[in-house]
Amino acid sequence: MVKKWYSMGAIALVCAIGVFLSASPAWTADFPEKGKTITLIVPHEAGGAPDVAGRLLASGLEKELGVPVVVVNKPGASTQIGLTQLVKSRPDGYTFSSIAFPTSLTYLDAKRKTGYDRKSFQPLGMHVLDVNVVAVKYDSPYKDIKELVAAVKKAPKGVTAAVGVRNDDHFTALMFEKAAGIQFAHVTFPGGMAPALVQLIGGKIDVFLGNVGDMRSVVKNNQARMLAVLDNQRSQFFPDVPTMEEQGYKIYNSSSRGYILPAGTPKPVVDVLSNAIKKVLDSDDHKKRIADMTLALRYMSPEDFGKYWEKFEADTIELSKLIKD
């Protein structure tokens, strides 16, 4: 008879491996498993640009992955409600979320007590970049940025500008004011920037600081006029509109939107999902549909998206110092 023996160390190692495997998210080379549903959390109201873009992506992912991809809207608290749900989900790839910068960086404000930070998430990929704009009513007396700046300098806080609260539109106002040495009279609107655009067209405010994606119909219908875009190149949708840089101000800003997973999601799962997202974004059908929304595709891999996030976070911290609570 052969005597069998095991060291206490070997037994402990086997037990530890067993505990690790049972606690780790289930994933296999089959991910996603046939018949299982993937949930895409969109932390915005239904019908807006982030929601529509997310639904377009979900439709493409269903074809790529061969499983249902269901969109669930969880709006509120500047995306905090939806991202909180994501953080609480299992890091197994079956739940991911869209994210918008800088709107979703509420965790930088300690008073918000989000319960999560940058390390709580795994970047999955960038989708679109919606460049900021400076716009006025179609019949406004301001024909370019130079005339607008001159008017504001002549009457400090006498020119009204629609801005958000700690979002990209708000930061556009702060950067513009700092670069030009001016100060608008800030006007905020509940419900996002759509009501602000209505007020601009109605002549209730003088300047609209929004995004390219807001402008197609109002420009086409001669209701508003764009004075500048905040990018290092002219917009593919409005090539006649000069950049701020062309008019003497090197300021750049945008609302960028991408997708994330809970931290701890296994890399093979991240790779499957990110590769599928890239294939969808590379398709002619998706390119056309996104362009129809006046949104510019700006894909980034998980690694590049993570670097972009880190820089955006650092820039946002600096811009936040300009906010006077």
The low-pLDDT segments are: 1-27
- The shape, in one word, is globular
Distance between the termini: 81 Å
Q: CATH topology of the largest domain, anyone?
A: D-Maltodextrin-Binding Protein, domain 2
Class by alpha and beta content: alpha/beta
How would you explain this protein's 3D organization?
By secondary structure, this protein is an alpha/beta fold. The chain starts with 7 loop residues before the first helix and ends in a 5-residue tail after the last helix. It is 38% helix and 20% strand. Helix 2 (49-65) packs across helix 8. Strands 1, 2, 3, 4, 5, 6, 7, 8, 9 and 10 form a 10-stranded mixed β-sheet that branches. The radius of gyration is 23 Å and the shape is globular. Strand 5, helix 5 and strand 6 form a beta-alpha-beta unit. It has 2 domains: 31-129 and 255-320, Bordetella uptake gene, domain 1 (D-Maltodextrin-Binding Protein, domain 2, 3-Layer(aba) Sandwich), CATH 3.40.190; 131-254, D-Maltodextrin-Binding Protein, domain 2, CATH 3.40.190.10. The protein has 10 helices and 10 strands.
Task: Considering the chains and any ligands shown, give keywords for the structure.
38% helix, 2 domains, 20% strand, 10 strands, disordered N terminus, globular, D-Maltodextrin-Binding Protein, domain 2, ten-stranded mixed sheet, alpha/beta, 325 residues
Write a compact overview of the structure shown:
The chain is of the alpha/beta class and 325 residues long. Helix content is 38%, strand content 20%. It has ten helices and ten strands.
